[in-house]
């Protein structure tokens, strides 16, 4: 499949700080690609270099077969960018805002208006932007990035500071946009967001990519045990330790947690003891991958 983005040996320093330190990856056409890591990992700097907003100290970047730096006027109509901090023209409605952005690319008003429906803001067309909720403002920002129908969309922390429901509503919008065939590159510090949305993720920390691949593949590569939990009192700790397949048992007074590499055997034994009330099974996550790679807890 064709490579929409190719990044090789990317480096960016600020004094003694290596914000981006030898980053290499590619993004395929139509892919939903995530750059995942804590604040300060180098995600935004990497994205800004790829977008042509910042010059790299070293390395090569190709976007849709073109170099993004110096600012490439041939590339601009083909990409859409939603920055981490969005700004809108004051005192304009959502419709007016979108039409104004569209006019910069020669987009007809009717076509611009259709983007409001795409991001679920059709009923907010005549609401001034300062009256929109945080989630609605983020969706309008994405609509502005899409108004000229770009092939490639960059999203920098699009759900930061949103409440859980607004985040998931925005996930639905992003899935629909990707389903239409657009390539999306997303930065996020939310593990669940990357797992839910991305075809592949690059886990980044201290300016370097630690690992890259589909979320499920990265998690499976850990060969990590499962954790089975029930409410305290459903099963005695002593009985849990005797279950076939139970490697470790802990009870914090709220939940009894059994760690195992053979969850089916443990569940079957628990069922025989009628101890499945409220049972939950938790597998490894991208957070476990990050912890394995860095040896420390993930920090958002």
UniProtKB/TrEMBL annotation:
GO molecular function, one term: ATP binding
Membrane topology annotation: Peripheral membrane protein
Keyword Cell division assigned: no
Entry GO CC: plasma membrane
Domain ABC transporter residue range list: 5-231
Keywords from the UniProt entry: Antibiotic resistance, ATP-binding, Cell membrane, Membrane, Nucleotide-binding, Translocase, Transport
GO annotation, biological process: response to antibiotic
PROSITE patterns hit by this protein: ABC_TRANSPORTER_1 (PS00211), ABC_TRANSPORTER_2 (PS50893)
Location in the cell: Cell membrane
Domain of life of the organism encoding this protein: Bacteria
Chief localization: membrane
A Pfam short name: ABC_tran
PANTHER family: ABC TRANSPORTER ATP-BINDING PROTEIN, ABC TRANSPORTER ATP-BINDING PROTEIN NATA
Similarity-based family: Belongs to the ABC transporter superfamily.
Protein name: ABC transporter ATP-binding protein
Taxonomic lineage: Bacteria, Bacillati, Actinomycetota, Actinomycetes, Streptosporangiales
